[in-house]
Target: Transcription regulator AsnC/Lrp ligand binding domain-containing protein
Amino acid sequence: MITAIVLISTDVDRIPEIAEAIAAIEGVSEVYSVTGTYDLVAMVRVRGHEELAEVIPGRLNKVPGVTNTETHIAFRTYSQHDLEAAFSLGLDG
Model:
């Protein structure tokens, strides 16, 4: 599974409708409205790099109101939730 974090700039007055349109794209697992330089952050999870091309430049970037994106590919996941699950399974030593 490949995870990409997509930072998205949008037309500010249309953030909710743009976020909903992005969230409806297959491969997008979550969309957050955020403060700072970008307006939205989307988490994209797909099986292969080819699918990233379909989802991000192929669909997400074409949502009306999206003005700019910056994509980061995750190498490894570190999650407190994952650590707690491992310890609850008795994997603590």
